[in-house]
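Re: your question from the hallway

Yes, I did run it. Sequences:
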Amino acid sequence: MNTTMLNSLKLCLAAALALGSLSPARADQDIVITQNIQVLGQTKPIPLAIAGFSGEVLQVLKFDLYVQGFAFTTPDVAQYQITGTPGENVTGTVLDSIAKQPILARAYSGTTLRRQAHFFANDIVSAIAHRPGVGLTKIAFKKEIALGHGEIYVADFDGFNPQFVTHDDTIVAAPCWVPGKLAVCYTSYYPGNPDIFYQSLTSGQRTIVAKYPGLNTSPAVSPDGSHLAMVLSKGGSPNIWVADADGTNPKKLTSTLEDSSPCWSPDGQWICFATKLRERRVLAKVPAGGGEISVIHTAGVSNPTEPDWSPDSKWIAFTRQAGEFDICVVPADGSIPPTVLVPGEDPSWSPNSRTLIFTRRTAGGSYALSVLDVMTKQVKDIKRISGNDSQPAWAR
Amino acid sequence: MKKLNLIYPLSLALAVALAGAGCKHGPAKLTRLPGPADAPNVGDVPPVTTQPQQPQQVQLPTAPPISQEPPVGGGGQNIPLNPDGTRPPSNPDLFDGMIQDRAALAAYTVHFDYDSSVVKSSEKANLQSVATALGADATLKLLIEGHCDERGTEEYNRSLGERRALALREALAKLNLDAARVKEISYGKDKPVDPGHDAAAWTKNRRGEFVLLHPNTAKP
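Structure:
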């Protein structure tokens, strides 16, 4: 928050009016905001200039930084200058153009050039924005190869280095990560029914954790890894259930009729989900041990679904449906109305609670994954090789 | 909407207050940076600094095992393997060991209204035909598939498809078809009968299909 930067006069004016501390007349003067105001979807990107990099390294740096709230411009208006030194490895410096001070100088060796570039991008995010970068994070997602045939995949967050997790050649769905582990849970129709699997990514071994008659889907592992929330229909309608991580001791948490998409609060106390109450579609939460359902306020948006609670516990991202789908973010306490960000569905938070990955329908009607910086609304598709990619889950 | 309009400026004000500062007079212009031509060799002396600074050397770790061979895809312990170690494909012609007959009841597919799992009274004749076909032969069973159009998110539709299938099972139970003979499965929007993106396709895709299950007399 202590970054000094030029911000837009428009934002400044809005802020001044809202505060009531400045008259509009004063805004005509040469007023410049020196604080980067963090408003969801309206924050100005931090301007960077970059020189001395090429090829894959330049691509990685530009992608990683763009989707984390930085924009590329010419050196005369850049707040930071990133300069690379040609060579076999990534070597670069970052200069604060206002303070006229170098803030970072690193020379990387080892691993791949691509990973070196991700490391450098992370160090830049950390040095400038004082938060961890997402450059080395992983995602899981569903890849539909043909109608009714798909596999669960994992990849780098930018879609590179994709690897299949399943080879079931059937409908698969709803992957989630086991927090802090190289393991995922997902739904596969392989057994002839939608059942929930747990699979280690290091050994490849998997076990079925829920295979009740009817629907077993939407697994969500608790932050401490001890419990599994999911949708089961064995009670007569699709409801939210919680069980031990291995699927034992299932307990029904809801008896509303139209439940879907459970997710956990970061403290493990709540399970948030989409449902219908009094003829209205709502997001709701229920204590993970069972108890009263309470509604999350999402005034002003219709048909909220697919909630995901940010790891810093402040926000809930979700999909709204008003004709088409849009990605929205609301404070977890519902204290202010949701912000509608961009078209898309099924958002999943990055580990640093700043970026979302979501499913976007392309102009051609296929599905691609995109990453979104929620503060600046900067968005870019990640790499897609073939088929339809959807239901992304960010490892955290 | 009025309430929303009021709350939004308030929230913006709050955000500004939290940021710890309002508008201030600042430098009118940013400092001009040296261009690439006059930048010194950054590895030795970074530009615009009084202190020479060597880049910090960082030896990076290799990627975690997830990106190493062998690939993460593996067999499931609980999925039986063929003698040669390969995985058998799931058999689309079997369900719970029974043989699927998709043609027998194909004429009786039931359709639903948008985002609804209510079985319409106009579908009564189809349901009666299904109940009659199953009849008194207790060896025959029924699989109900619940499907949705594309206008809903994936997991929402998986629940909606399940609700449709369950609603059909309940409607058949009222026609005296024993619910113990009926299984249901939801495909959400993963198996549209019409891949189109228009109203005509959606109408066809919001459906419940009936699959007759015969006992499998062949020994495995």
